[in-house]
Amino acid sequence: MLMLIYTRLQARTARPLSLQSQQSIQRVPRTLGERLLVGVNVVVMLGLLVTPLLALAWRSITVDAQLSLAYYRMLWTDTPTHRDLFFVPPGQAIANSLMFALATVIWPRPWTAGGRDCGAGQNL
Predict the structure, then answer these.
(1) In 1-124, where does DSSP find H-type helix?
(2) What is the average pLDDT score of the chain?
(3) Average of pLDDT values for 27-46?
(4) Higher pLDDT, 25 or 80
(5) φ/ψ of residue 112, rounded to 5
(6) Do 71 and 57 meet the contact criterion of CB atoms below 8 Å apart?
(7) What is d(CA 66, CA 96) in angstroms, rounded to the nearest whole number?
(8) Is the pLDDT of residue 85 over 80?
């Protein structure tokens, strides 16, 4: 019932879009203010994208505010720091993940034939 009400309301309130080509609406920033706005926007977007990645990388190479690769060495140890029943060493988990990723890429899939995607009604 709710979908019926939504569909009728949507049909009544929908307005057609006046789609235009990219060439007709896109233009190069001309004034100093427009260029400054674009430049600040690009810097802010890059900052928002890169800053968390840099923080993550920095935290991975520092222990107690000193540079160290201890966290990376711990990836390949076989002894768990927490005695857990389902513990798998991180190195082995990484190797398993890469093995499954490789298998999904090269393993033949029944829904494809010769690298082409077969539609639902096509024969293999």
Answers:
(1) 2-13, 22-25, 32-60, 70-74, 90-106
(2) 84
(3) 96
(4) 25
(5) -120, 155
(6) no
(7) 32
(8) no
Instruction: State which amino acid sits at residue 58.
Output: W
Residue 112 near residue 118, CB atoms below 8 Å: yes
Cβ distance 92 to 77 under 8 Å?
A: no
Residue owning tokens 């990376």: 72
Q: Tell how far CA 5 is from the center of its chain.
A: 36
> Do residues 61 and 69 lie in contact, with contact meaning Cβ atoms separated by under 8 Å?
yes
- What is the rounded distance in angstroms from the CA atom of residue 11 to the CA atom of residue 16? 11
Q: Which amino acid is at 8?
A: R
Is the CB of residue 90 less than 8 Å from the CB of residue 75?
Answer: yes
- 41 within 8 A of 49, measured Cβ to Cβ: no
Band the pLDDT of 18: cuts 50, 70, 90.
Answer: confident
pLDDT digits (tens, 9 = 90+) for 38-77: 999 999 999 999 999 999 999 999 999 899 998 888 877 7
- Predicted model pTM: 0.51
- List 6's β-bridge partners, or say none: none
